[in-house]
Each structure stands twice: as structure tokens, then as C-alpha cells.
Amino acid sequence: MTAEHAVLDPRTMRDVMGNFCTGVTVITALDGDEPLGFACQSFTSVSLEPPLVSFCPARTSTTWPKIREVGTLAINVLAESQRTLCGAFATSGGNKFRGVRWSPGDNGAPAIDGALARVEATIEAEHDAGDHTIVVARVTGLTTLDPNSPLLFYRGSYGTFENM
């Protein structure tokens, strides 16, 4: 067996990849009157021209198929003070928006109060990627909202960093 086809232990993969610190987002959309959302740490800028971003929902997500149907969405970049909110959006089922203050963004997707920034986008492409889907979305709007520190995910825990 070559290294290219080696079988790796998922726990080891999670532990090693956990050394890469990421920000935390909540991907949202509005389906009629129903706000939809899920927490997502696998978010990145892809291209400046054209303006593209990417995120990776789990294939087991029950929210992602609903957001896909809507087609327009917002990526809300969470602030360090939004750890509890992140936990609510990381769970499956239930009313994730209970107690969450939000308003419709320019494209109608929920803009979560207190987020650091918001990226509004439309779905451009999807690619199968193991137990996740790689979504590429075209940016239609950008907003910086709050100058506070970001919520970070590192080695399986949430945290922040001190400004130097």
C-alpha cells in the first residue's frame, strides 16, 4: 500500500488537523419566514476575481440541503462573545434561532447581531469530498460589523487570542 492510499485513523486526523486554528462562522439563509443556519469552521476565501469563498458542510447536515434550495446565504463571522451562540448552531435539529437577535441582510439571509463580519453570497458550485461537501459561493456583499476579537477553534476547543 502506498502512502497515497494509506488508511488513516480518523481520531489521529482530527488531532493533527486540530493544530490548525480556524475562525468560526454561522452559515444562514431565509426560507420563506424560516431562518436556517449551521455552525461552520471550514470557511475560506478562494478568489478575489471573481470574488469567491468556500465552506464545507457535513454530508449529515439536515440544514445544508435546505440552504442549498434557497441558493442565497450569509456567512456570519462570530465574535469571541458568541461561543454559546455557536454551540446552539452546532447542534442538529431544534430552533437554533431561539433567543438569537438577527435581521435580514441585503440578500435576505439572516445577519446575526454581534457578528464581526458578514459575507453574502450565492451558491456557485458543489463538490463531493468524503464526509463533507465543498461549496463554492460567489460573494455579492461584504460587511464589517464589529471590531471585537474573533471566536477561534483550536485543538477541539474555542478560544481567543490577545492582541499584541
From TrEMBL:
<keyword id="KW-0560">Oxidoreductase</keyword>
<dbReference type="GO" id="GO:0016491">
    <property type="term" value="F:oxidoreductase activity"/>
</dbReference>
<dbReference type="InterPro" id="IPR002563">
    <property type="entry name" value="Flavin_Rdtase-like_dom"/>
</dbReference>
<protein>
    <submittedName>
        <fullName>Flavin reductase family protein</fullName>
        <ecNumber>1.-.-.-</ecNumber>
    </submittedName>
</protein>
<dbReference type="InterPro" id="IPR050268">
    <property type="entry name" value="NADH-dep_flavin_reductase"/>
</dbReference>
<dbReference type="Pfam" id="PF01613">
    <property type="entry name" value="Flavin_Reduct"/>
</dbReference>
<feature type="domain" description="Flavin reductase like">
    <location>
        <begin position="17"/>
        <end position="160"/>
    </location>
</feature>
<comment type="similarity">
    <text>Belongs to the non-flavoprotein flavin reductase family.</text>
</comment>
<dbReference type="InterPro" id="IPR012349">
    <property type="entry name" value="Split_barrel_FMN-bd"/>
</dbReference>
